[in-house]
Recover the amino acids of this structure.
């Protein structure tokens, strides 16, 4: 194949691509009767409360933690959770070498509220996220989309939050494709097929292979960013350690996210209590 | 002693130690890790490292033994805008059997008791990293870092990220900052000490015992700058330039050539002369259009220039059988000149444009025949989309634009890397992800800018001696096979041959399927075909190399419990090579190779401890034409690791 042929090939591929239908950009949710849904999230809000910055190492490419779309796809006795970010998902740390799932830096927690009732579920966030949930929006299940292999994730759960072990789902398979992370979960593990009334909250974090003693494989947010630390928060465990979240419809979603994640007790530097933490909302995109 | 008394003594002791911890040490953070490895192979070697340094016997490589290392990391926030850290780690190489080893090997003294094998077996704790990072109130400056780093701020085409085991070996001074807000324009500058080992001609920057022409390495530095810009939301640009300078003392300096006589011009100063000068630059662009969310285009342009001064660097192309990480380029008059080349690649990605789970990638690459990133990544990175030639089934691989690739200090289950200098072609890759299925299909064509008739591999272009045949990474050893006595094929660094007229076709199919009913059961399949043709001397139809390689692999992953994951797999490879062995004068003969590999593995994680075990058996037959003998391998080998971090 000579250079001229290759140039023609490239041009043809580009032309073919430009003729393809563009993906929907509708920010509103798409709901399906089987519980499937698709929700968009704004581009450029991967800064937590508006101040967070990426670590300085080159592996943290711009957009790596910018959640742009969340999708639930039921199929047979399985459910696929698809989380799309703004940049191509890469594997700079060769996850296959450590039994991982084909990507390296992202880490996502998909919280699910199956009943929308007060007094049911868990209000605390998973260790290392430094968030909590409202009483009537407590999570009943959480799916962990991690590049770490399932045995490592299960081991961390056993160490750091064994009390929620039965509610935490490590997917049967986790993979990356393009800009999308995909987790396949058994419906039985969710307690049944997704229903239109279910609520979701997707917390975008980063995989930390050497986490702090109390953190569930999450990367710290500090006051100043480091080679492998997010910046723009505090050096204490009071700030929400998430880069991007879903927010309920209505109003400016970016502004709303910033407000939600800014509401924590900045004075609580030691002995941080649950009430000091930011409350993240559940999103019920398909509820009546 | 009663309890109250004990408490009193303890309190007094604590008080004597000093004041309570200061509030500003709240971020004082310590972490530790113990890593233990056990290796087995049915051979007569001992050690805990499959492939050690092949050049000299460093007595840590071998296939039978158990070894342990310990690592301690300490990080602290010194002040609001200053942080520091160190990493202490024990030396790798001592086996559990190394009883009483203290490293006191005495040169010239026969050690009949086997008491010491030297410091390689002494498990001494070594300072592996020390760094301080500060954010001084200087306009635009965000951080200044002084100390250890892994060079990850640059890229594989200039100064590459150090391999994991060398991650703290690089030291330098780095300044990073933002000129415009929102990362619209940011910069990083760095001055790095060049490694005295590996980063220059002859894999050194000046070791008089190893290169009589060079003895000074303390003056050698690499400088680099990175400018990143986001002129508009859809486009990111990154410009990196690196300048490597290996200085030697000017051998004609009056202070070195005679008495300190002012009349001779001696003034108690010594000038420096260039031994090696390397320049690499890249411009990368990342275009992610906001008007369509399924398209991304990335591109890279690169340039390299490497100059070797033969007055200060021994020519290893001439004197080292063609084993050299640099080209010793000369002009038509025989004068040393810089070896220069350009490189480029463009990757177009369509991410599931039809919303059917079908994605498409197309990459065009064109790497000049003399492009060489002497301090580029040596392994653990991959610059091309293709699976490449060197990657097999259980043994993975990647491509890097340097002659300085390091397939050493690694175990048999780790990936292999090949040089892609001179590659010119394209890769098309289809990816289908639908429900339980993920599948990729690749086709790659590789032409070679290095194709040439009568290339000077005696004096200028290193050929690494072994230029023919598929490299068998599974059977690769570094001990008695260093001279390739087991006919393991081409050296992965070899890109030049005296006569080459080569092209390669490559097709790869990967399938990953989540099986129903069995929790966490994943079936993996890989098929690969390579057709490699080298016409060698164009006018000679009887010397054409033609290699065909077929590979099939199936794996089954099961997760019986939350803690346990198992893998069972089988790989069949065969490659048929016409005119593989021989020479233009004696003629070439054919060979055939068949290899069966069975592989079982498991990981078990519990309470913060992680155990891994892999057992592999391979049988290989190498069939050659007389007088070359046939060879056979029946190899069992295992690797177990046990680690805990806290």
């Amino acid at each position: 194949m000579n250079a001229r042929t290759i140039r023609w090939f490239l041009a043809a591929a580009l032309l073919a691509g430009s003729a393809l239908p563009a993906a929907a950009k509708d920010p509103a949710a798409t709901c399906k009767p089987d519980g499937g849904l698709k929700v968009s999230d704004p581009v450029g809000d991967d800064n937590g409360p508006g101040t967070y910055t990426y670590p300085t190492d080159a592996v943290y490419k711009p957009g790596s933690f910018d959640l742009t779309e969340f999708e639930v796809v039921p199929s047979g006795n399985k459910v696929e959770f698809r989380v799309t970010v703004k940049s191509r998902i890469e594997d700079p740390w060769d996850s296959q070498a450590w039994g991982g799932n084909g990507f390296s830096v992202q880490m996502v927690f998909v919280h699910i509220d199956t009943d929308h009732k007060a007094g049911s579920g868990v209000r605390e966030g998973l260790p290392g996220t430094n968030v909590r949930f409202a009483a009537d929006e407590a999570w009943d299940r959480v799916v962990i989309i991690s590049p770490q292999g399932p045995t490592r994730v299960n081991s961390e759960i056993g160490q750091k939050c064994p009390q929620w072990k039965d509610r935490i789902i490590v997917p049967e398979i986790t993979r990356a494709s393009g800009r999308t992370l995909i987790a396949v979960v058994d419906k039985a593990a969710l307690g049944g097929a997704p229903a239109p009334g279910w609520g979701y909250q997707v917390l975008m974090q980063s995989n930390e292979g050497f986490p702090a003693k109390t953190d569930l494989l999450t990367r710290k947010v500090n006051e100043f960013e480091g080679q492998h630390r997010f910046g723009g928060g505090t050096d204490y465990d009071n700030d929400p350690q998430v880069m991007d979240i879903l927010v309920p419809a209505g109003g400016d979603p970016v502004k709303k996210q910033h407000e939600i994640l800014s509401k924590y007790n900045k004075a609580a530097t030691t002995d941080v209590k649950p009430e000091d933490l930011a409350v993240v909302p559940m999103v019920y995109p398909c509820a009546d | 002693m009663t309890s109250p008394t004990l408490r009193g003594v303890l309190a007094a002791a604590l008080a004597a130690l000093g004041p309570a911890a200061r509030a500003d040490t709240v971020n004082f953070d310590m972490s530790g890790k113990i890593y233990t490895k056990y290796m087995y192979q049915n051979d007569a070697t001992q050690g805990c490292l499959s492939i050690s340094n092949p050049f000299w016997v460093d007595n840590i490589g071998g296939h039978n033994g158990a070894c342990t290392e310990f690592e301690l990391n300490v990080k602290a926030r010194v002040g609001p805008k200053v942080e520091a850290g160190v990493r202490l780690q024990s030396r790798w190489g001592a086996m559990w059997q190394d009883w009483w080893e203290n490293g006191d090997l005495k040169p010239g003294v026969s050690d009949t008791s086997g008491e010491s094998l030297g410091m390689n077996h002494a498990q001494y704790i070594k300072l592996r990293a020390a760094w301080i990072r500060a954010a001084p109130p200087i306009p635009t400056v965000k951080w200044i870092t002084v100390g250890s780093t892994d060079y990850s701020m640059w890229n594989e085409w200039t100064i590459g990220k150090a391999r994991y085991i060398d991650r703290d070996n690089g030291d330098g001074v780095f300044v990073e900052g933002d000129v415009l807000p929102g990362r619209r324009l940011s910069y990083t500058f760095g001055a790095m000490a060049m490694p005295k080992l590996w980063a220059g001609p002859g894999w050194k920057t000046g070791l008089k015992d190893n290169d009589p022409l060079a003895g000074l390495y303390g003056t050698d530095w690499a400088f680099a700058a990175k400018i990143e810009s986001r002129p508009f939301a859809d486009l990111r640009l990154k410009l990196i330039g690196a300048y490597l300078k290996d200085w030697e003392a000017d051998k004609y300096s009056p202070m070195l050539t005679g008495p300190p006589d002012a009349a001779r011009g001696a003034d108690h100063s010594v000038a420096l002369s260039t031994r090696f000068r390397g320049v690499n630059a890249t411009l990368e662009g990342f275009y992610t259009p906001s008007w369509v969310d399924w398209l991304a285009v990335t591109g890279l342009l690169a340039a390299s220039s490497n100059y070797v001064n033969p007055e200060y660097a021994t020519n290893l192309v001439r004197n080292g059988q063609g084993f050299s990480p640099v080209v010793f380029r000369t002009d038509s008059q025989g004068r040393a000149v810089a070896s220069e080349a350009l490189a480029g690649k463009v990757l177009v990605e369509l991410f599931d444009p039809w919303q059917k789970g079908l994605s498409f990638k197309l990459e065009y690459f064109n790497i000049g025949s003399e492009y060489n990133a002497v301090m580029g990544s040596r392994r653990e990175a991959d610059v091309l989309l293709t699976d490449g030639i060197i990657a097999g089934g259980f043994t993975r691989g990647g491509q890097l634009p340097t002659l300085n690739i390091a397939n050493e200090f690694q175990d048999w289950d780790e990936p292999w890397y090949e040089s892609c200098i001179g590659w010119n072609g394209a890769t098309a890759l289809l990816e289908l992800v639908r429900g339980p299925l993920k599948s990729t299909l690749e086709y790659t064509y590789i032409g070679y800018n290095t194709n040439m008739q009568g290339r000077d591999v005696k004096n200028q272009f290193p050929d690494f001696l072994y230029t023919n045949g598929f490299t068998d990474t599974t059977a690769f050893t570094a001990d008695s096979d260093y001279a390739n006595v087991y006919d393991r094929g081409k050296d992965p660094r070899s890109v030049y041959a005296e006569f080459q007229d080569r092209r390669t076709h490559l097709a790869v199919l990967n399938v990953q399927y989540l099986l129903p009913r069995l929790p966490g059961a994943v079936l993996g399949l890989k098929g690969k075909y390579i057709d490699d043709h080298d016409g060698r001397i164009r006018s000679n139809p009887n010397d054409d190399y033609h290699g065909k390689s077929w590979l099939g692999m199936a794996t089954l992953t099961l997760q019986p419990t939350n803690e346990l994951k198992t893998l069972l797999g089988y790989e069949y490879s065969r490659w048929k090579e016409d005119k593989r062995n021989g020479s233009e004068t004696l003629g070439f003969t054919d060979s055939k190779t068949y290899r069966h590999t069975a592989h079982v593995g498991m990981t078990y994680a519990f309470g913060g401890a992680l155990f891994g075990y892999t057992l592999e058996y391979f049988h290989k037959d190498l069939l050659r034409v007389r007088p070359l003998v046939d060879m056979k391998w029946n190899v069992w080998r295992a690797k177990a690791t046990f680690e805990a971090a806290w």
Summary: Residues 9-25 of chain B have pLDDT under 50 and may be disordered. Residues 137-261+271-343 of chain B form one domain. The two ends of chain B are 34 Å apart (CA to CA). DSSP finds three helices and 26 strands in chain B.
